[in-house]
Amino acid sequence: MALFFEWTDELSVGIQEIDEQHKVLIELLNELHDAIRQRHGSEASVQILGRLADYTRTHFTVEESLMRILGYPDYDAHKQHHEDLINQMNELQLRLSAGEAVTFELMHFLRHWLTNHIMEGDKRYTEYFLSCGAQEKWHKKSWLERFWA
């Protein structure tokens, strides 16, 4: 069975910590898609979307912390983009909790948003982060990877 959303090297921002977090987001989208496809019910979808929203908030906190620490010049705009998505995720969670079904249209929206965010937003900070001393590869697993595993 083909995945709804597959990681490709094209999505890599060139910083393993961030790439690994993006892979978790993709895995959660695939899990949500699979639950919808297999008709696991709205309770399962609400639970998975909740995990996706929680992990997204954590991921954004990591990115924003790095931006502040490294003095990233486009911090305010990138943070606003994060806040816009969090607001959309909150609204989706409310709609699901009220009994609205998760649709494939919603899934395509989430996939498009994540792809666009990585390709258009996150790839912009890579060169800046690396020039400030960020490491391309981690020497040991991330605390976040262990926390969410």
TrEMBL record:
The keyword Metal-binding applies. InterPro entries: Haemerythrin_Fe_BS, Hemerythrin, Hemerythrin-like, Hemerythrin-like_sf, Hemerythrin_metal-bd. Gene3D superfamilies: Hemerythrin-like. Keywords: Iron, Metal-binding, Oxygen transport, Transport. Pfam families: Hemerythrin. Residues 14-125 form the Hemerythrin-like domain. It comes from the Bacteria. One of its GO terms (molecular function) is metal ion binding. Belongs to the hemerythrin family. NCBIfam families: bact_hemeryth, hemeryth_dom, PRK00808.1. This is Hemerythrin.
